[in-house]
Amino acid sequence: MIPGPFQFHRPQSVADAVKLLSTLGDEARPLAGGHSLVPMMKLRLATPEHLIDLHGIGSLKGIRREGDTLVIGAMTTQHELVASPEIAALVPIVKETSLQIADPQVRYRGTLGGNVANGDPGNDMPGLMMALGARYRLEGPDGARDVDAVDFYQGAYFTALEPGELLTEIAIPVPPSGHGYAYEKLKRKIGDYATAAAAVVLTLSAGKVATCRIGLTNLSETPLLAEDAAACVIGTTLDEATLAKAADLARAVMQPAADGRGPAEYRTHVGGIMVMRALKRAAAKAV
Question: What pLDDT sits at residue 127?
Answer without folding.
Answer: 98
